[in-house]
Amino acid sequence: MTEAGETSHVRELPDxxxxxxxxxxxxxxxxxxxxxxxxxxxxxxxxxxxxLKQLGLDAEVFNESGYIARYGxxxxxxxxxxTLPSALSDDTVVxxxxxxxxxxxxxxxxxxxxxxxxxxxxxxxTSNSRFGHLNLVVEGASSTSELVFDLLMEFxxxxxxxxxxxxxxxxxxxxxxxxxxxxxxxxxxxxxxxLAAHELMLRGARPDRLAQxxxxxxxxxxxxxxxxxxxxxxxxxxGELVEITVTQEMLQRLGASILDADSLAERxxxxxxxxxxxxxxxxVDVWRVSLRSRQxxxxxxxxxxxxxxxxxxxxxAFRWRRGFSELQGALRAAVQxxxxxxxx
Length: 344
Fold this sequence. Notes:
Elements: H1 16-24, E1 28-33, H2 39-54, E2 58-62, E3 92-97, H3 110-114, E4 119-123, E5 134-137, H4 144-159, H5 167-181, H6 191-202, H7 207-215, H8 220-231, E6 234-236, E7 241-246, H9 248-254, H10 264-269, E8 276-282, E9 287-293, H11 300-305, E10 310-311, E11 315-320, H12 324-342
Parallel strand pairs: 1-2, 1-3, 3-4, 4-5, 7-8
Antiparallel strand pairs: 6-7, 8-9, 9-11, 10-11
């Protein structure tokens, strides 16, 4: 473990001073992340809260989706609450992690954020709208968890303490990094990502255990719904576009949840010759659409932005509340136009 005042990472955080002042001047910190959270959403929000508690701050994590059992390996995730505090005091700071836009927190949480006197936006998405009063946004960083690591390391340097990233916080942040880098396989993985992972291991994180629980532990229902969806996939645009669809009927018939389909976008992307993979997931009242591009060959964040979403060049998402036929037709046209530019 590094000594207090030393650092094991290389990134300089932009505009960090106001963030430190806001957090240290607060009485209470409410930490949020995007609805239907993934490993980075839980990892960054729970890791930040644990680090702030080590500083003596009152920090709690809330998410519109509450706790999702699939992410139980992440310390603090089982304690995430779905019901927000009824009121905000003037000395409460709201921190939103891993959200490219305020809408990503979920419709019921938006008024809460809008009522806050101080909102800190910590994120790594290229499409981030800078909705916070303070915005700690580093586009192209591997994950929001890596940025929280940087932030807590800087807190340690400034405070002269070496224990803000305790073993539990280290596990949270490692899980987020592993999740958003695909176990260090994606192009956003940088030298600073490996330096962060090195330090987190020294502080007690077990990447082998985390990766096993996050990627290699699935229910039989999940395997069945993924198998059925893959059998029904559609290959278009001379093999460069793949579409995979998961309906509510499939989920209910097979006893699966919508989260059981999450990995299908990556499976479609990994088919030889495919440049863009589209995953349509039917939720109760909305279609959730995930886009993946092999190594960012096609900027799918630009495609998602056309539909009110966002993300990164190789991975993006959006929600759609109208009919599926309209969605499928409009999205195919957008992807085909993007692919055409590659061959122009």
